[in-house]
Amino acid sequence: MLENLKGRLLSKSYHLLLSDTVIDQIIEEGFDPDFGARPLRRVITNRLEDNLAATILEQGIEPGSAIWVNYEHGKYSINHRNFDAAEDLGEYYLSNQDNTPEEKPEDIGLKPKKEQIDRNTLI
């Protein structure tokens, strides 16, 4: 599901990066004991897609930008950086292997309550 979102953004020349805390929070919010993983689609739409679209439009984020999402202290945060050329983006990724620009996201210990959802299938 998240790869689909990343692919759609990439087709518009936006490079989406998600921290582990975002993925863990989506799993936690998207799992329901009665419905299993079915609510995941709604959580991805409400928490990521809608907010990403609003941020791209409101902040005028240009194609070719890297957009990364983090989840800390009960809030999602969306950050971005514009790149002039693909080489700049490639160099940036290689020099920042944690895929975060100025700061490394801290893992604040949020883990899914239920381990029934395999992280790899969500990504």
Quaternary form = single chain
What average pLDDT do the residues reach?
76
Question: Rg from C-alpha positions?
Answer: 15 Å
**Count, helices:** 5
Briefly, what CATH class? Mainly Alpha
What is the share of helical residues? Answer: 40-55%
Count of discrete structural domains? 1
Largest sheet: 3 strands, mixed
Topology as a string of helices (H) and strands (E): HEHHEEHH
Helix and strand content put the structural class at alpha+beta
| Net shape | elongated
**Uncertain residue segments:** 99-117
CATH fold name: Helicase, Ruva Protein, domain 3
Q: What's the β-strand tally?
A: 3
Provide the β-strand percentage band.
Answer: 5-15%
Instruction: Give the distance, in angstroms, between the N- and C-terminal Cα atoms.
Output: 6 Å
Q: Architecture in CATH?
A: Orthogonal Bundle
**Widest sheet: strand order?**
1-2-3
Protein architecture, described:
This protein has 123 residues and is α+β, with helices and mostly antiparallel strands. It has one domain: Helicase, Ruva Protein, domain 3, CATH 1.10.8.60. Helices cover 45% and strands 15% of the residues. The chain has five helices and three strands, in the order H-E-H-H-E-E-H-H. It has helices at 2-11, 20-30, 40-59, 86-95, 119-122, and strands at 15-18, 66-72, 75-81. Strands 1-2-3 form a three-stranded mixed beta sheet. Helix 2 crosses helix 3 (40-59). The radius of gyration is 15 Å and the shape is elongated.
